[in-house]
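Hi,

I'm pasting everything inline rather than attaching a file, because the server keeps stripping attachments. The sequence lines come first, and each chain or strand is labelled.
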Amino acid sequence: MNDDELMAAVRDAFEILDPVPADVLAAARASIAWRTPAAALAEPAHDRGGHAAGVRGGPARTLTFVCPGSTVEIEVAREGRYREITGRLMPSAAALVQVRHRDLPPGGISARAEPAGLFCLPRVPAGLVSLVFRLDDGASIVTSWVRL
Amino acid sequence: MAHRDGTDELVVRARGGDGDAWARLVERHSGLLWSIARSHGLNDADAGDVVQTTWLRLVERIDGLREPAAMACWLATTARHESLRLVRRRGRDLPRVPAPREPEPGPDRVVAARERLGRVGAALEALPRRCRTLLRLFALAPSHAELAAALGIPVGSVAPTRARCLDALRRLVP
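And the predicted assembly:
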């Protein structure tokens, strides 16, 4: 066997031993539906605390997302399989806040950010989450996906 | 190379709303992303998480991507970072998740798989874990650039590492 044949045999062997599960592929195929070309992407800048899974009353996790001109700060409290997200949008602005999550229909969980930019999402399922802010002036901001 | 397999063109088409192009990207690259997660010792759930997160990271950036040709490297780097992030998180989390496991197909499948795996499969099982993991990544990465990104090593050290592991495998294949 030459190198290429050996490599092909290795590839085949792992394809038999440990293939990518079908549900993982299906989720990857479906992920393109989460595109938001018109929204500004707010990327994670800080992620602190709250790493003691299952420990009640531990410090809440705080995350900061930034995009040019705006910052989103959230605090995440654990309650079993759910997360309570409280946060604020800066500079302060009124907006519709929507939770994006694989197990939720579009707009399944949403809240209003009051003019001071404060909002609360009391029962978000654990998992990969992204928040979309639809500002009253027509602009929108989307946070990078994060596991909560 | 990214150009050779048309990955850059698929990215441009997917960005234009071509669902088939996206599906082909996913089919082409998910194997490497899964292997990168496995190379960090992650179990099924965590490896699935890494693959999903990596694709979502591409989706959130796809409209601003300046160099679609570099996407394969970018995917590999992202999967490595997400894997490391999960490993760190698991290290801090209590209770700990069950130890990462090798896949455990049923006995019938193992017998059938062994027959199909042949000499190379048997040799792979005899190799040290590190070498087996590296060979898997070597077999799946489209080029040395993606491999360097997957491993977090300089491109220049890929070829000697690959040669060493191939030699080790060759000694075991009768």
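The first helix of chain B runs from residue 7 to 15.

If the labels don't parse on your end, tell me and I'll reformat.
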